[in-house]
Structures are given as C-alpha cells and as structure tokens.
C-alpha cells in the first residue's frame, strides 16, 4: 500500500534533480524511484533507485510526481507525458527554509528551493519553479510553468505570464507585467512591461529579440 510520503521523480536529465532530492530528504519523503524518460544515459549520476521509461508499469499511478527540470518548455512536455502514463497528481515540493505568506495560493507541481520568500496575496499557477533565494513581493500574479532563477527579486503588484523564464539575479520592479513565454536575462533590471515571446537583457532591460517560442518551448 502506498504511504502518504511516497514520491516519484520523472524526467531527470537535469542536475537540478539533486536540488529537488535534497529538499525531499529534508522533508522526510520516501523517494520510490527516479524515472529517466529518455532512451539514453544522459542523466545525473548516483540516483538510486533509477528506472528507465520501460519500467514505468511497475509504479502505482497514485504516487505523486516531482518534475525536477528548470526550463518551462521541458516541464510542459513532461507534464503531458506523465498524464498520458496515467499518473494522477504532482507533488508540491517546498524547502523547509522557505517563507511563504499564509495568504499565498498555488496550484499543483510547485517547486520551491531553499531560502525563497513569497509575499502576501500572491497567486501561483501550476508547475512554477522558484530557485534558491528568490524574493517575490506581495500581490503578484504568476501563471503556469514560470521559472525563477536563483536570487531573482520581483516587486509587488507584478504579473508574470505563462512560460516565462526569469534569469539569475534579475530584478522586476513593482507593477510591471511580463508577457507569456518571455525570457528575462540574468542580472536584468526590468522597469517596464515586456511583451510576450520576447528576450530582454541589461539594466535597464531592453528588448534584443522578439517572436521567440519561449525557453525550450517548441513552436506550435
């Protein structure tokens, strides 16, 4: 019988798997397995027990899944695969050192690394990832599949739309809106709205490319 603290990792081609493993251990979770969904050996070393995709029939579909991948596009692909395999839920992996206001609301698949702070009245979509030491202000709207790199700072009353990737140590000032599938370069300081499907870099951030599909997101 499945215990209440069992989890599975699915899609482990990134070294970020180690970060998620560390959080899971601190939470006392029982990792039933690491499932590599690709037909190759391109995955981090020393993950045990390791299973290839052909072994997926061995697992109870009621065990919640963790997707340990950084980029929005890969998480979108993996979510679809997992649901097609018949799994029913995704685990909300929240590091115990994080500080999340009691009024914050989120959907499934939340991934919060160490020392993250999320302010009051913030709403978070599904499969959003906060890397180490991210600071999110109050009344922020974050849509599905957004990724925040380490050390990002997001001011209050901002909106980060679906599939956006916010690079390491970037800053988004209050009341700014970031369009869907955009990329904020590392260290950028965003002072005004960013259109969808756009890359911005620098301080203040400026557009360097438009019409992108998104970070590892395949064009429709």
Task: Describe the SSE topology.
Elements: E1 6-10, H1 16-26, E2 30-36, E3 50-52, E4 65-66, H2 72-84, E5 93-94, E6 99-100, E7 105-106, E8 111-112, E9 117-118, E10 123-124, E11 129-130, E12 135-136, E13 141-142, E14 147-148, E15 153-154, E16 159-160, E17 165-166, E18 171-172, E19 177-178, E20 183-184, E21 189-190, E22 198-201, E23 206-210
Parallel strand pairs: 1-2, 1-4, 2-3, 5-8, 6-9, 7-10, 8-11, 9-12, 10-13, 11-14, 12-15, 13-16, 14-17, 15-18, 16-19, 17-20, 18-21, 20-22
Antiparallel strand pairs: 22-23
Characteristics of this structure?
220 residues; alpha/beta; six-stranded parallel beta sheet; 2 helices; 11% helix; globular
In which range does the helix fraction lie? 10-25%
Main sheet attributes: strand count, strand direction, barrel closure: 8 strands, mixed
User: What is the percentage of strand-forming residues?
Assistant: 25-35%
What is the overall shape?
A: globular
Structural class: alpha/beta
Average of the residue pLDDT scores: 95
SSE pattern:
EHEEEHEEEEEEEEEEEEEEEEEEE
Model regions low in confidence, pLDDT < 50 over at least 5 residues: none
The counted number of beta strands is 23
Distance between the termini: 41 Å
Q: Reading side by side through the largest sheet, how are the strands ordered?
A: 5-8-11-14-17-20-22-23
- Separate helix tally: 2
Rg over CA atoms: 17 Å
């Amino acid at each position: 019988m499945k215990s209440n603290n069992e989890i599975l990792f699915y899609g482990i081609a990134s070294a970020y798997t180690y970060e998620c493993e560390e959080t899971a251990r601190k939470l006392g979770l029982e990792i039933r397995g690491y499932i590599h969904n690709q037909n190759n050996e391109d995955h981090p070393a020393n993950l045990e027990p390791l299973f290839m995709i052909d072994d997926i029939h061995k697992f109870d579909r009621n065990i919640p899944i963790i997707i340990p991948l950084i980029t929005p596009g890969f998480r979108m692909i993996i979510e679809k695969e997992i649901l097609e395999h018949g799994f029913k839920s995704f685990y909300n992996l929240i590091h115990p050192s994080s500080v999340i206001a009691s009024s914050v609301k989120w959907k499934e698949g939340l991934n919060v690394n160490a020392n993250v702070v999320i302010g009051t009245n913030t709403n978070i979509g599904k499969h959003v990832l906060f890397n180490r030491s991210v600071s999110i202000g109050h009344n922020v709207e974050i849509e599905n599949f957004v990724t925040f790199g380490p050390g990002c700072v997001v001011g209050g009353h901002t909106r980060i739309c679906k599939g956006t990737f916010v690079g390491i140590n970037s800053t988004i000032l209050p009341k700014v809106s970031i369009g869907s599938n955009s990329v904020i370069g590392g260290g950028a300081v965003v002072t005004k709205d960013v259109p969808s499907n756009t890359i911005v870099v620098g301080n203040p951030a400026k557009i360097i490319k438009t019409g992108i599909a998104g970070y590892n997101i395949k064009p429709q």
